[in-house]
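FORM 12-B: Structure-to-Sequence Request
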């Protein structure tokens, strides 16, 4: 067996960030900016009101109160997207809508809730300070401000900012296309009746979802039978349209584990027995420049193997700085059982944040076939080789959500 760190290092040494492309801003969520973005103009480009109300001169309302309202003539209306027809003079008011430009001569806005009005006059029942509810030009960004540096991961808020400075496209590391196969004669899809020895394919749908959650484009390549020629042809065809491939099943020591054998013939394969539980067997190779992850067939092993090897690689291909899941220390609320076997155990766990930090308990059955416990988990407890983790002990955990 080799250590987890050595296995991850072998993958890391092969995978690199994908080439840069320009994409539509609205399609860039989760990608990494590869250019410096500078604001070409002030945002907002003009002083505007943060409230519906009336544009006034604050000096006209110095003595206004509920008991002594100040009445002003309404000489115009300024809607968002319009401008005042003339400057505001002393002793006047203009009706104004949120986002509309402040008329020349006005230096405050009194919100509509502090007024009583008809078509021609407004009664103001409170004084307002100079600049009240006015958002100055450049209040968000000044022209020439560096908005984003290369390496910034794009969130919905970043998309909003890019749009606000007029960007329709942005240079990013390309989103990888990741193809996913399941392998095995025993697999069936959907609600068909199961024949003796058959099981439903859960790995492929789960891995496709994990790929999408990682930020890549997931490509469903279907189920492959335990046929050496079929697997050979499918892998050759898939590398043309994908940046990485993931298979589940066929990488252990059995007579029908053809994925490992085909990968060894077609490309540069490293087959590893990693000192972890679950997910000990891993086949990793490169075929015509395309990384291929041969993950184990047990559903929990497949998911854990994805988290430890494939997900960090996919994120690296995207240029993401956060390739790894978040790790924390947690307090065990119950005994986390294990035995000495030379492996690091990744136990499905339920994590909660309390006043004294993270707490952890088991999510249920820990067999590599027990997928329901993985669905109940929001993290993995990382148990180094040794004895049980007792109540109150601190243990490292990986957050899955």
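FORM 12-B RESPONSE
SEQUENCE OUT:
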């Amino acid at each position: 067996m080799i250590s987890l760190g050595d296995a991850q290092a072998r993958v890391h040494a092969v995978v690199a960030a994908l080439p840069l492309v320009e994409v539509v801003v609205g399609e860039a969520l989760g990608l990494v900016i590869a250019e410096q973005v500078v604001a070409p103009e002030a945002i907002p480009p003009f002083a505007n009101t943060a409230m519906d109300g009336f544009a006034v001169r604050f000096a006209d309302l110095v003595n206004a109160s509920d008991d002594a309202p100040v009445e002003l003539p309404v000489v115009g209306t300024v809607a968002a997207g319009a401008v005042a027809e003339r400057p505001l003079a002393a002793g006047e008011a203009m009706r104004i809508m949120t986002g509309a430009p402040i008329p020349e001569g006005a230096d405050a806005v009194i919100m509509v809730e502090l007024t009583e009005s008809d078509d021609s006059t407004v009664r103001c029942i409170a004084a307002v300070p100079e600049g009240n509810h006015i958002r100055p030009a450049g209040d968000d960004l000044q022209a020439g401000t560096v908005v984003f540096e290369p390496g910034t991961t794009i969130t919905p808020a970043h998309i909003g900012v890019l749009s606000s400075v007029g960007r329709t496209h942005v240079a990013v590391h390309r989103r990888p296309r990741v193809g996913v196969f399941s392998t095995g004669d025993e697999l069936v899809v959907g609600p068909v009746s199961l024949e003796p020895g058959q099981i439903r394919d859960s790995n492929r749908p789960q891995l496709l979802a994990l790929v999408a959650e990682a930020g890549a484009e997931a490509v469903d390549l279907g189920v492959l039978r335990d046929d050496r020629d079929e697997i050979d042809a499918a892998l050759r065809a898939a590398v043309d349209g994908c940046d990485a491939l993931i298979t589940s099943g066929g990488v252990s020591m059995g007579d029908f584990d053809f994925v490992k054998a085909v990968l060894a013939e077609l490309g540069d394969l490293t087959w590893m027995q990693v000192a972890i539980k679950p997910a000990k067997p891993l086949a990793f190779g490169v075929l015509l420049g395309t990384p291929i992850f041969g993950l184990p067939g047990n559903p929990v092993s497949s998911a854990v193997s994805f988290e430890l090897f494939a997900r960090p690689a996919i994120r690296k291909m995207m240029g993401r700085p956060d390739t790894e899941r978040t790790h924390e220390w947690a307090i065990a609320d119950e005994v986390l059982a294990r035995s000495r076997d030379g492996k690091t155990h990744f136990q499905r766990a339920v994590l909660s944040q309390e006043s004294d930090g993270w707490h952890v308990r088991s999510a249920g059955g820990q067999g590599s076939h027990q997928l329901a416990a993985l669905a109940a988990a929001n993290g993995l407890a990382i148990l180094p080789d040794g004895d049980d983790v007792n109540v109150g002990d601190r243990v490292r955990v990986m957050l899955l959500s």
